[in-house]
Design a protein that fits this description.
By secondary structure, this protein is of the alpha/beta class. The chain is 49% helix and 9% strand. A four-stranded parallel beta sheet has the order 2-1-3-4, covered by helices on one side. The longest helix has 20 residues, at 14-33. It is elongated.
């Protein structure tokens, strides 16, 4: 099929193409909402201070060691399934999942909720937003 044939198909079947694009957008929207609304860094700080929550950093160890939120727990997203037991003692506390930009955290939130963690949230914008707001980090 040549490019011109493809364009002809789109022009003749515009309703089908529109329906496909709409369906894909709704699918992406629905999947992203399953992780719940994201918290701003300030909301995350308030929640952890008020209810004794923890920050779970799902970035790779190398990135985590460069700079992370004080007292954050580091479990890279690729290892989360195998290391989920390390979070059992925090099951009743709020867990704020943090990644680099806020996108990987969604999958981690879904994974934690599927294994019985109910008070799990993701931080909007991840460490990039944290840094933009010049909030404190440590490398220890």
């Amino acid at each position: 099929m040549s490019f011109s044939q493809f364009l002809i198909f789109i022009s003749e079947q515009w309703l089908l193409v529109f329906a496909l694009l709409l369906s894909l957008n709704l699918l992406v929207f629905t999947e992203s909402r399953k992780a719940g609304a994201a918290l701003s860094p300030q909301q995350a700080i308030n929640l952890t201070n008020k209810e004794g929550g923890i920050f779970l950093d799902v970035r790779e160890s190398k990135e985590f060691k460069r700079a992370h939120i004080l007292d954050a727990v580091n479990i890279p997203s690729a290892n989360l399934q195998n290391r989920i037991g390390e979070l059992e003692s925090h099951k009743s506390q709020p867990i704020i999942v943090v990644c680099k930009m806020g996108t990987t955290a969604s999958a981690a939130v879904k994974q934690l909720r599927a294994t019985g963690f109910s008070n799990v949230h993701r931080m909007a914008g991840g460490m990039m937003r944290w840094d933009e707001q010049q909030l404190p980090v440590t490398s220890k």
